[in-house]
Amino acid sequence: MPEASNDRAAVDQPLTDADLPRPLSRPVLSARNLTKRYGDVVAVEALTFALERGTITGFLGPNGAGKTTTLRLLLGLAQPTAGEALIFGRRYQELENPMHRVGAVLESGDFDPGRSGRNHLRALALAAGIAFERVEELLALVELETAADRRVRTYSLGMRQRLGLASALLGDPELLLLDEPANGLDPAGVHWLRGFLRQFAESGRTVLVSSHVLAEVAQTVDTVVIINRGRLAATLGLDELDDGARSLEDLYLELTAREGA
Amino acid sequence: MIAQLRSELLKQRTTRTNVLLLLWMVGLVVLVVLLHVLSFSVEDLSRSDNQLMIVGLGTSIGALFASLLGAMSITGEIRHGTIRPTFLATPRRGRVVVAKVAASALAGLAVGLIAEALTAGVQAAGLGARGIHIELGSGDYVQLLAGGALAAALFAAIGVGVGAVVRNQVAAVVGLCVWLLFLEPLLLGDVHAAAKFAPGASAGAIAGAIQTQIADDLVAPALGVLLLAAYAVLASAVGSIATTRRDVN
Fold first, then answer.
1. Do A206 and A175 meet the contact criterion of CB atoms below 8 Å apart?
2. Domain extent for A132
């Protein structure tokens, strides 16, 4: 699939429909004019972007920029005030077997501290019609077999991240949405995650990963979507930047400082 | 639907909160029943209506704890954030609420049965120790056990609805306790005519347990079942609508 032809830096104007990439197939994920207000507070404003199949996209922005709100809108956990958030061309709530299409890890993991890691995965597997053998496969993949029967209360942050990733992968999805997945991982864990996501994307699947660790992002992703104060600040391919992390940082700081001044 | 129910039943079995809840209930039943059996006079305790009133305490306690279990099945998920993966697996949230109602009702059935059986057992032991003859017949016990279990199951469903609407765990738990332990007994004392249709009084009617304030004023057991079922359906429906419409944070 030709890439980068439609990538651009759009600093002030949000992209309109006509600006969206038009691949042969539908975009894996698209936000169109997506807006969420809480009373007078604008969390996300007229956000438009799309993900291409087989890519890893970094979703960047300062704390409070609207990253988490956008992910919640995409996942149908919150309703947009205006615009739409589509996954495989449909609202999340309209997907037939959502866990088989999309996997998501939100924040530092959503677990009952008194339940074991294995039972956490089993409860989700039952609801999604997934066999318990798959739970065991994933416990092995994220190296939590020996801790599987311990209560999540006893897990380190890194172990919770890995359990969250295992939950997201239960249905063998085509799209992963990860909110700060490297938080709490040790260097070996970060290295493993990077390799895993790379492999995941190379098999034709797609990843959106929010982060504010720019150096980490620069090593992992193909494209970045930068938002600031709920608005789109830029979308661009990393190959449009001259020199990896350094210039991504410059661009990021320039874009996110602009309205704060 | 079956998938969601199985998931909810697994959650019920694997949360520590439910174990703690059950232990609290057992402790409370033993304490309350023993206090009654040991402090009343032999003459009072020999009367069948008083014996029935004391075993009726099990109905109230069972119903209370079943409602807490139901409420926590949803407020606990909201508190720990597991409601998010739950809704990602089942985005049609009405199904999740219905599955929680069904799973909590089944758990509530067990809670009610345990509360009644324990109450009857502790009372029998206490009366036996004081040499007092038990006046209750097998018919009384059958209605107590079956009715108490059914009332607790319906109260668990009410709890799910209340939890879904209130969302905050402490507020839901305090609200249910205040209603069942203070407000409803106050109402029973002051406005008999209306209060006998209230949820707690309906539970008493189903189990045939006589509550002190309105000894002669309970509705018929069948009407009690209908009333409590209506409260359960209403609470579940409101909880389902609220859960479907509101954002998850």
1. yes
2. 110-173
